[in-house]
C-alpha cells in the first residue's frame, strides 16, 4: 500500500489582515489600559505576532499609536458623530440621536470605557506634540461638522438665535465631559441628562 502523504499546508500571506489585527489589539489595549501602560510585548502576545512582524507594519510604538488615532479613533468619530449629524433631520436632532444611541449601547454592554478620543487626548496631549496635533484635528473636524449642519438649518429657516460655532463647541465639550463622568461612575445616565439640556435649547446666544 502506498504511503499516505499529509496534505501540504499552504502558508497564508495576509499582511493587511495582520496589520488590521495589530490595530484591533492596540486600539482595545490603549482604551482599556492606556497607551503608556501597554507594552509592545503585550501587543505582540495579544495579536499573536512576532516582533519582526509588528515592526514591519509599525516601526515604533508611536507610529502604531498614530495609526490607531488616524484609522480607528477618527473613524469612530466619523461613524458615531459626523455621519449621523449629516443624515439627521437637523443638527439638534442628530446630537440627540447620538447621545441616546451611545447611552443605550453603554447600558447594553454594562460597562463604560469612555470616549476613545477623550481617553487618548487626556493621556497623550501633554506628552507629545504630534499626538496632540492629530487629536486636536479630530476635535476640530467634529466641531466643524456640527457647526456646518447648524448653519444649514439656519439657512433652511428651522433654527435661529444660535451661534453655530458656540453650539458645536458646547456639544463636543458636553459629550466629552458626560463620557468622562459616565466612565468614572460606570453609569450612562449623565449622557441622557446632557442630551435633554441640549435639546431644550442650550447653546443659544
Automatic annotation (TrEMBL):
A molecular function (GO) term: DNA binding
Kinase listed as a keyword: no
Tagged with keyword NAD: no
Start-end of DNA-binding region: 39-58
Keywords, sorted A to Z: DNA-binding, Transcription, Transcription regulation
Domain HTH tetR-type stretches: 16-76
InterPro entries assigned: DNA-bd_HTH_TetR-type_CS, Homeodomain-like_sf, HTH_TetR, Tet_transcr_reg_TetR-rel_C_sf, YxaF_TetR_C
Matching PANTHER family: HTH-TYPE TRANSCRIPTIONAL REGULATOR LMRA, TRANSCRIPTIONAL REGULATORY PROTEIN
Protein name: TetR family transcriptional regulator
Taxonomic source organism: Mesorhizobium alhagi CCNWXJ12-2
Amino acid at each position: 500500500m502506498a504511503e499516505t502523504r499529509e496534505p501540504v499546508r499552504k502558508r497564508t500571506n495576509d499582511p493587511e489582515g495582520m496589520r488590521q489585527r495589530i490595530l484591533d489589539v492596540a486600539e482595545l489595549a490603549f482604551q482599556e489600559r492606556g497607551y503608556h501602560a501597554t507594552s509592545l510585548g503585550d501587543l505582540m502576545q495579544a495579536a499573536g505576532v512576532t516582533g519582526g512582524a509588528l515592526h514591519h507594519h509599525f516601526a515604533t510604538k508611536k507610529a502604531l499609536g498614530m495609526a490607531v488615532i488616524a484609522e480607528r479613533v477618527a473613524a469612530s468619530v466619523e461613524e458615531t458623530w459626523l455621519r449621523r449629524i449629516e443624515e439627521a433631520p437637523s443638527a439638534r436632532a442628530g446630537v440627540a440621536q447620538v447621545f441616546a444611541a451611545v447611552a443605550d449601547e453603554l447600558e447594553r454592554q454594562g460597562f463604560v470605557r469612555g470616549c476613545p478620543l477623550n481617553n487618548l487626548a487626556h493621556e497623550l496631549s501633554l506628552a507629545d506634540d504630534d499626538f496632540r496635533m492629530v487629536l486636536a484635528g479630530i476635535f476640530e473636524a467634529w466641531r466643524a461638522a456640527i457647526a456646518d449642519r447648524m448653519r444649514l438649518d439656519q439657512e433652511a429657516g428651522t433654527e435661529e438665535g444660535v451661534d453655530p460655532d458656540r453650539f458645536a463647541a458646547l456639544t463636543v465639550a458636553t459629550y466629552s465631559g458626560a463620557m468622562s463622568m459616565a466612565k468614572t461612575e460606570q453609569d450612562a445616565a449623565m449622557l441622557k441628562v446632557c442630551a435633554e439640556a441640549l435639546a431644550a435649547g442650550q447653546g443659544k446666544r
